[in-house]
Backbone:
């Protein structure tokens, strides 16, 4: 631990810990508001969940309360080139969510969701029978209904967060990679943020956007979250002619059935979902379990049997942080002034990322936002078993 | 007592000698191999209905090839042999295989990886044209199918295999237009002392060179390839290179075989989570092994060219030694004198391998001179310029980062053929030492995995729990 006498390597209006899509986009939006920003990242920006996820840019299927945030995000996705200054392979080619014949009750749910989502500007068409087969001929016989979101799509997750970080840097943010933060504390009106190698960063505002590692920092302020680290099961096929445009996934209560795929214009088909694998935040490694891959490849053929003709050339994973209720922690701390959170997106943070960054920046700058954040409050975990388990989780 | 389950992957010289030593100690190993028949690459067997003689197929190596094949035949009843089987993943003590489009899980107590080596390649402009092969690929076509890669072939690169394959083509009746070696003669003279460690092999090498010259094949040394010339529609029509005096030479040909020595196939070792280290002499990352073949992971052994490229004769010895190490670690008492003798003998091969690396060095400097429009990653069609751009403009200074940004090494070969050159390009563009660039992490599947091999989810589950395939 460094001594109080050491000079900080950076003093700014805001320190952001965690360089995933939340932190990097927040850094850019803060700079656009004129605040000085230091972003610190334990490895390389966008290396874990933000860079290894499936790449869905979808609003469909999100809980309705998330849609205002998702809508703010999609506005940013649509102007991404202008925002970050490069192509991140964002394509608004639609998103299809299907249910199987053995769960006919889910058709009602798809229809109800479509009705309710309409009030949030999310237009969905629920198709069945010949209309569905005509529009999505690649769907398997087991598929009963398909809900189509015309304006959703996908992007290349490997490119997005690094592009945000570079744009933030060009706008004047200081970005420190390979900087693992071990200690955070409030020291008078400032936060002191100390790295493993003793470097100190100071600012009156601290934003914790550290994904699966967020709890290690929030717990130091007495606000622990029972985060579970998991690794998504991902794979990609060899390239074949580009023919399936929308991103397509299964709506089911069964984890192993929830597979999805998307094809990119260069031809490869990216497959995700199903059972998640183990992740080791201490080692910054997550491994794909071979059995999960096999199960996923079995399931994907129920969704789109023609994919069976392809070869898988690579599998991968990354580290995602899951909260007990599957919702993120987002907004101002109710315990410590100047402290903000944006982590625990539980495997579905990619699409909302650019909305989270903008909302956090707005909140930090103005103290308020029109986006409802009630459901993301940290205090919902206060006094829960997460608090009890704080000792074990703080490490 | 429960029989220990020992799995050997690879039925080349290392794998066969390893299985043989295990069998003679009373263990029944499972020998898994990707090929249709035993022999590996160097002693690859022709299809059953082909009738070329050993002398014709293997030349100077005929007696060694015959010995390995007959040892294998004698072993058949004492091992479980799984040919045409791909090991696509490893997790803990389980190997994941695909055989006859069926998934099998094999549990092991000891795993010996005898996975061999593939060509080490440096890109050259035009190497993505059809008609360009690796030296190994050119040799496989000849050995397995009695086919030449062209009617008028240039062999370019460096290393012992360059001369061997050229001589095999010449003997088989193909026209060998020229042998183009990037290593200057002076390097060979400097390496002579080390090469004398195994005089018989040195002599064979010299005889090959003389045979090529006697046949009128021009041999150029100290060259630098400039471009493989041709069109996308018609493929290779020639090669352009700079000779040792710096003059540009244009040569017509219809095929080019390219290779710069060999590199161990280490994907499985990587998936088994073995530690790697950077070897400055060959400028590549190699898996850690002790002299007997023990990796950094208990129960996982690496042998043959898959651990260190020392050639087939050394592979036989290291395969046997790895088997004795397995026996020792399983608490069976192996012949310690035999182990000592094998270690001593392998030291002379180490010596010789050092000499070969000195005589035929990896031309790392070429990477810096490659033009931006040269393709570096052929699977994903990534150009040298695109790779340099992610280094210089997006700040990727490490192999996996450059892969994430540019897709270099992301295709079906998983960086086997572009990874080493990409690392050199990154190091030069980022102005960092090559060892700082790191290595591409292996990701399953080791080779492309057909999705339909998993018929449905339930089958995947039940097959995944099958233990053994006796």
Residues:
């Amino acid at each position: 631990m460094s001594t109080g006498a050491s000079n900080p390597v950076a003093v700014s209006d805001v320190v952001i810990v965690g360089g995933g899509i939340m932190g990097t986009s927040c850094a850019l939006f803060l700079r656009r508001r004129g605040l000085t920003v230091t972003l610190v990242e334990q490895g390389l920006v966008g290396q874990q969940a933000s860079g290894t996820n499936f790449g869905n840019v979808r609003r469909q299927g999100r809980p309705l309360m998330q849609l205002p945030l998702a809508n703010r995000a999609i506005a940013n996705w649509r102007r991404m080139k202008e925002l970050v200054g490069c192509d991140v392979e964002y394509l608004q080619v639609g998103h299809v969510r299907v249910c199987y014949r053995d769960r006919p009750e889910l058709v009602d749910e798809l229809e109800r969701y479509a009705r309710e989502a309409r009030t949030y500007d999310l237009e969905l068409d629920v198709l069945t029978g010949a209309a569905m087969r005509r529009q999505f001929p690649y769907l398997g016989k087991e598929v009963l209904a398909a809900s189509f979101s015309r304006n959703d799509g996908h992007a290349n997750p490997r490119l997005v967060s690094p592009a945000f970080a570079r744009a933030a840097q060009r706008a004047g943010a200081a970005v420190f990679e390979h900087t693992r933060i071990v200690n955070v504390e409030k020291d008078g009106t400032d936060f002191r943020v100390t790295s493993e190698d003793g470097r100190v960063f100071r600012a009156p505002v601290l934003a914790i956007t550290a994904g699966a590692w967020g709890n290690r920092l929030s717990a130091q302020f007495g606000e622990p979250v029972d985060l579970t680290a998991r690794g998504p099961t991902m794979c990609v096929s060899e390239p074949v002619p580009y023919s399936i445009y929308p991103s397509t996934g299964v709506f089911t209560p069964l984890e192993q059935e929830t597979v999805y795929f998307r094809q990119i214009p260069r031809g490869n088909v990216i497959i995700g979902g199903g059972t998640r694998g183990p992740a080791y935040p201490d080692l910054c490694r997550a491994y794909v379990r071979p059995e999960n891959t096999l199960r996923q490849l079995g399931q994907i053929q129920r969704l789109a049997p023609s994919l069976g003709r392809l070869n898988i050339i690579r599998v991968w994973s990354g580290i995602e942080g899951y909260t007990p209720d599957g919702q993120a922690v987002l907004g101002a701390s109710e315990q410590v002034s100047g402290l903000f959170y944006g982590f625990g997106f539980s495997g579905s943070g990619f699409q909302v990322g650019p909305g989270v960054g903008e909302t956090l920046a707005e909140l930090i700058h103005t103290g308020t936002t029109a986006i409802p954040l009630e459901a993301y409050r940290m205090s919902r975990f206060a006094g829960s078993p997460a608090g009890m388990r704080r000792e074990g989780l703080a490490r | 007592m429960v029989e220990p389950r020992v799995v050997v992957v690879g039925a080349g010289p290392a794998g066969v000698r390893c299985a043989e030593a295990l069998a003679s100690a009373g263990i029944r190993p499972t020998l898994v191999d990707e090929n249709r028949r035993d022999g590996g690459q160097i002693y690859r067997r022709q299809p059953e209905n082909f009738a070329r003689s050993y002398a014709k197929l293997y030349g100077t190596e005929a007696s060694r090839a015959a010995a390995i094949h007959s040892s294998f035949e004698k072993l058949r009843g004492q091992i479980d042999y799984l040919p045409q089987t791909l090991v696509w993943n490893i997790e803990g003590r389980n190997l994941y295989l695909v055989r006859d489009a069926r998934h099998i899980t094999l549990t092991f107590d000891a795993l010996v990886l005898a996975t061999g080596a593939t060509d080490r390649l440096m890109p050259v402009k035009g190497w993505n044209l059809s008609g360009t092969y690796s030296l190994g690929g050119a040799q496989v076509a000849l050995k397995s199918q009695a086919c030449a890669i062209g009617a008028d072939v240039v062999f370019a690169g460096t290393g012992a295999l360059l001369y061997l394959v050229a001589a095999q083509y010449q003997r088989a009746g193909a026209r060998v237009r020229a042998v183009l070696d990037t290593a200057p003669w002076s390097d060979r003279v400097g390496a002579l002392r080390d090469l004398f460690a195994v005089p018989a092999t040195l002599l064979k090498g010299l005889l090959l060179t003389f045979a090529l010259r006697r046949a009128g094949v021009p041999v150029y040394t100290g060259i630098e390839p400039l471009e493989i010339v041709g069109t996308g529609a018609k493929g290779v029509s020639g090669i352009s290179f700079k000779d040792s005096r710096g003059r540009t030479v244009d040569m017509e040909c219809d095929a080019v075989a390219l290779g710069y020595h060999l590199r161990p196939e280490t994907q499985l070792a990587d998936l088994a989570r073995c530690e790697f280290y950077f070897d400055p002499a060959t400028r590549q990352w190699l898996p850690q092994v002790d002299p007997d073949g023990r990796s950094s992971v208990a129960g996982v052994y690496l042998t043959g060219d898959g651990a260190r490229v020392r050639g087939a004769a050394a592979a036989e010895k290291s395969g046997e030694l790895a088997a004795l190490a397995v026996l020792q670690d399983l608490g069976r008492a192996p012949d310690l004198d035999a182990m000592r003798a094998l270690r001593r003998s392998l030291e002379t091969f180490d010596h010789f391998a050092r000499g070969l690396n000195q005589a035929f060095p990896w031309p790392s400097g070429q990477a810096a001179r490659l033009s931006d429009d040269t393709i570096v990653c052929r699977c994903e069609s990534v150009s040298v310029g695109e790779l340099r751009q992610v280094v210089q403009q997006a700040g990727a200074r490490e192999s996996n980062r450059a892969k994430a940004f540019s897709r270099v090494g992301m295709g079906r070969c998983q960086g086997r053929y572009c990874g080493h050159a990409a690392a050199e390009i990154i190091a030069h563009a980022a102005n960092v030492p090559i060892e700082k660039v790191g290595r591409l992490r292996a990701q399953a599947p080791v080779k492309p995995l057909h999705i339909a091999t998993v018929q449905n989810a339930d089958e995947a589950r039940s097959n995944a729990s099958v233990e053994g395939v006796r």
The first strand of chain A starts at residue 10 and ends at 11. Chain A is about 30% helix and 25% strand. The two ends of chain A are 15 Å apart (CA to CA). Confidence is low (pLDDT under 50) at residues 1-5, 386-395 of chain A.
